[in-house]
Amino acid sequence: MEDLKIEYIEIEKLNNYANNSKIHTKEQIEHIANSIQEFGFNDPLGIAGEDNIVLEGNGRVEAAKKLGLKTLPCVRLDHLSKEEREAYVIAHNATNLETGFDDGVLFQELKKLQNFDFTQYGIDVDKYLKTCVKVQKRILKPLKSVHYLISLDINKNDEVLKVIDKLRNIEGVEIESTIN
Question: Whose C-alpha in 31, 44, 138, 143 is 20 to 30 A from the C-alpha of 152?
Answer without folding.
Answer: 143
